[in-house]
Every structure is written in structure tokens, then in C-alpha cells.
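Appendix B, record 7
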Amino acid sequence: MDINKVIARAKAILLTPKTEWPVIAGEPATVSDLYKNYIMILAAIPAVFGFIKGTLIGYGAFGIHVRTPFGSGLAAAIVGYALSLALVYVMALIIDALAPSFGGQKNPLQALKVTAYAYTASWVAGIGQIIPGLGWLIAIAGAVYGIYLFYLGLPVLMKAPQEKAAGYTAVSIIIAIVLGWILALIVGGIVGTGALMSGTQFGSTSDVTIDKDSALGKLDAWSKKMEAAGQQMEAAQKSGDAKAQQEALGKVMGTALGGGDQVEALAPDLLKPFVPETLAGLKRTDFSAERNGAMGMQISEAHATYADDGGRSLRLEVTDMGSAKGLMALAGWAGVESDRTTEHGYEKTYKQGGRLVHEQWDDQNKDGEYSIVLGDRFTVKLSGNADSMDALKAAVAGLDLAGLESLKNQGVKKG
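C-alpha cells (predicted):
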């Protein structure tokens, strides 16, 4: 195992997928090689970081901090890892079996390559689990980009006609979602917890016209920017110029997270007006705002707690994703929706008025969380005690959301 080769391949498939898929198609390999030299390494990322988050860091909300017991967390990580390795192989078998139905050629080894390398985006996104409040967005971004990798890879490795690639991808992803859901149920049981293709136009030839305003069209444009940034990075590495390498790395990060734009996050004092002194009849008891950055990336955050003498409390978080605003856009393009009901409440994600919304409610404890994404850049999250989810929504609606959203282009330099 050569870890440098693993990193190089992961970087190539994420940054320059259109040129990397033909290289992968022509490489000699065996099932054993693919597993021990790539799949077993990358697939460990979600398991390891999930264990770190759940057992070592823990989850906090509504003034309560919870950690998964060490034994349960470790068991879930091991079982989840083992099942993910099996899932890759099962998906490869399914992709291989589907090939003739979409004009492709059966080839089990090539099918395993497609599956393994297309899953790279989701595996790498597993690192985001340890980022408070943003893990779900990063997971969505990884899943959506993984779909795009499937779309590019299936015609090259499975010899499917380009005009049938969208259908081939759609059927494969539906099956992958079902398998992933089953995996999640199994792992969840251990720890005791409960229209991408729209806008794509197909011609009668092998050429495909992608609507630039569709999700796939935007991913295509993003991919081209990523490819250009990757080429700049390679040139800088060959030059041996440390400064050029640092600038090129910043460019790659900016493209990956910001969708190609350079973004200076808002100064902390600009976020303060969006954190009022009173909220839902409660007085603000503390406030903090900060802007942090590294490698040219910046994120600003403002936090406030509101409480009364009766024990009611709310926590407001206003975040400017700054350089990582591309993750917000990617989540929005995907049109992702989820709806999960538990014994005492629910959790769901949906789009409303062009904005991505996330709700979580516990009816037994009368507490919840309501967050909304504004301008594909800002998140406003309110959590804590309330009579109902409608009360949390009303409190957020009382904030100057339009004013915050109007700042979405401030500090943005188009790439």
C-alpha cells in the first residue's frame, strides 16, 4: 500500500474526473488490489470520524451533551466499516448486471472500479462529521458530487452510450440509496438510535446537452473549475516554488468549497445586527462573534443565548460560510429532501421558497432546532425550549433574514 498513491488518486478523481476516468479504465487491477490499495483505506474515513464525533467529542444540543458509550461506538464503527466494504461489492454487481439494459458491456472489474472511485466523494466528506452544525451539509455535498462522478464514469468504464448515462446513473443511485438506508438501520440499531437529472436534455446522437441552470449543469461548470485549479496545483508542484504551491492549494480549496469564487467572510461586527437583544420574549444573556480562517478560507460566526427566570432558553447561531459557500450551493442544487419520524418527534430537510430548511423536534421534551440557509451562504439556526416548532419558526421569521440574505455577494470575487 502506497498512501501517496491513494491520495493522488483521490485528488485526481475529485479534481479532474473527466480525464481521470479514462486512465482508470485502462489500468490493470484485481478485486484484491482495489480493496487493499484503495477501498479499505477510503471507506475507513466515515467510520473513524463517526467514532471520533460520537464517542470522543459527542453531540450537544439544548444544553445537553451526549456521547455514545465507547463499546457501542466502537462496535458501530467496525460493523459500519465492514458493511460499507460489502456494499461497494454489491453495488458493483448491480451496476454490472444493469449494463446491458443501458447499452453497456458487462465487466465486473470495471463495475467495481466505477463504484469504488465514485464513492470517493462521500468517503472524503465523512471527515465533515466532526464539524459542528455543518456535517449534514458536507455529507450532502459529497453525495451529490458522487452522483456526478457516477454519471461521468459509467459511459467510460461500462461502455454505456452517453445518451443513456443519466438513466443508468439514476437507477444505480436509487439502488445505492436503498442499500445505504439498510446499512444505516443496521448500524443505528447497534448504538440504539433510531431531481438531480431534471434539466438534462438528450439528443438522438451520443452528444448530450446539459442545461447550464440545472443541477447537473452547475456541477459540470464546477467540475471544469476544479479541473483548472487541479492543473494549476500540478504545475506549482512541478515548479518547486513553495509560495506558488501554497497559492495553488488555496485555489483548489477555494474552488472545492466556494464553487470557484474567492470569498471574504463578513466581519464579526456586521453579523451583530442580526442577533437582536430580545428574541421570542427572552432577553439576550450572552453574545459572541468571531471570524476564523486558514489557507485563505474564512468563516464568520455569531452566537447568542436567550433565557428567562423560568428556565426557558434559546440558542441562536448565525454563520457566514464565506469561502465554503459552495457547499451551501451544492446542497441547494441537489434538491435533497428527507423526512424521519421518531417515537417522540421528527427530523426533516426540505426546500421552501428556494431556501434549504432543516427541522428537528422532540415533543416529549418540548425542544427543537430550526435552521435555514440564506443566499447559498448564510445559515441561521435557532434551538432550545419552545411550545412548538411553529414558535421556533416564528422567532426566526422575526429576524432580519432579508437583510442578511442581501449581503450574499459582499466580499465575493468571482473565480
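Remarks on this record: Residues 268-413 form one domain. The first strand starts at residue 59 and ends at 61.
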